[in-house]
């Protein structure tokens, strides 16, 4: 019985360790996702600043000279393209944020699984401890019974020897 409990405990310990490792891996995945969000945020900020600078330069150039309508339309198209690229950067940032959120949720799930595995393991540790205590008590009880039996046998011998001595005398 104790051997079987030890084997079950070993399995529960393995599962708890595996769940702990899953938490660590998921934490690393969340860190990577958070770094990706920061990178996308930095890219958006940099691009937005550069787009504003380019837009201002395009309009400043238009204002500094006489231009044709087609040149104004070209500037508007260039500005529209910059805005489209800005929206694309914003979309990538939102996707990175969504990925980070999914990783954070997965981390919470891994933590809950680890907590459950740890609780199960702790219950089995307690069960093994109680079983060992009961086995030890049983061994002690059996030893006490054997000692009583030996004492009874010895006292029986002593009594029979005394009776024989009394009968001989």
Describe the structure.
The chain is mainly alpha-helical and about 170 residues long. The protein has one domain: Orthogonal Bundle (Helix Hairpins), CATH 1.10.287. The chain contains 2 helices and no strands. The protein has helices spanning about 1-65, 70-169. Helix 1 runs antiparallel to helix 2. The mean pLDDT is about 90.
Topology summary:
Layout: H1 2-63, H2 69-168
Per CATH, which architecture? Orthogonal Bundle
> Can you write the helix and strand succession as a string?
HH
Question: Mean pLDDT, nearest integer?
Answer: 91
Task: Give me the oligomer status.
Answer: single chain
Percent of residues in beta strands:
under 5%
Q: What coarse outline follows from CA principal-axis ratios?
A: rod-shaped
Say how many strands there are.
Answer: 0
Quick tags:
Helix Hairpins; rod-shaped; mainly alpha; 169 residues
Brief write-up:
With 169 residues, this protein is an all-alpha fold. The protein contains two helices and no strands. It is 96% helix and 0% strand.
């Amino acid at each position: 019985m104790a051997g079987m409990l030890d084997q079950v405990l070993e399995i529960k310990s393995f599962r708890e360790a595996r769940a702990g490792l899953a938490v660590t891996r998921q934490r690393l995945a969340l860190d990577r996702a958070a770094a990706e969000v920061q990178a996308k945020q930095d890219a958006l900020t940099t691009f937005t600043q550069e787009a504003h600078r380019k837009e201002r330069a395009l309009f400043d150039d238009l204002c500094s000279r006489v231009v044709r309508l087609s040149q104004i339309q070209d500037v508007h198209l260039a500005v529209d393209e910059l805005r489209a690229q800005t929206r694309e950067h914003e979309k990538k940032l939102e996707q990175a944020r969504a990925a980070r959120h999914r990783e954070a949720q997965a981390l919470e799930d891994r933590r809950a699984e680890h907590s459950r595995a740890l609780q199960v393991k702790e219950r089995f540790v307690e069960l093994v401890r109680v079983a060992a205590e009961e086995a030890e008590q049983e061994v002690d009880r059996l030893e006490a019974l054997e000692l009583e039996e030996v004492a009874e046998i010895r006292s029986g011998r002593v009594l029979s020897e005394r009776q024989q001595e009394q009968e001989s005398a």
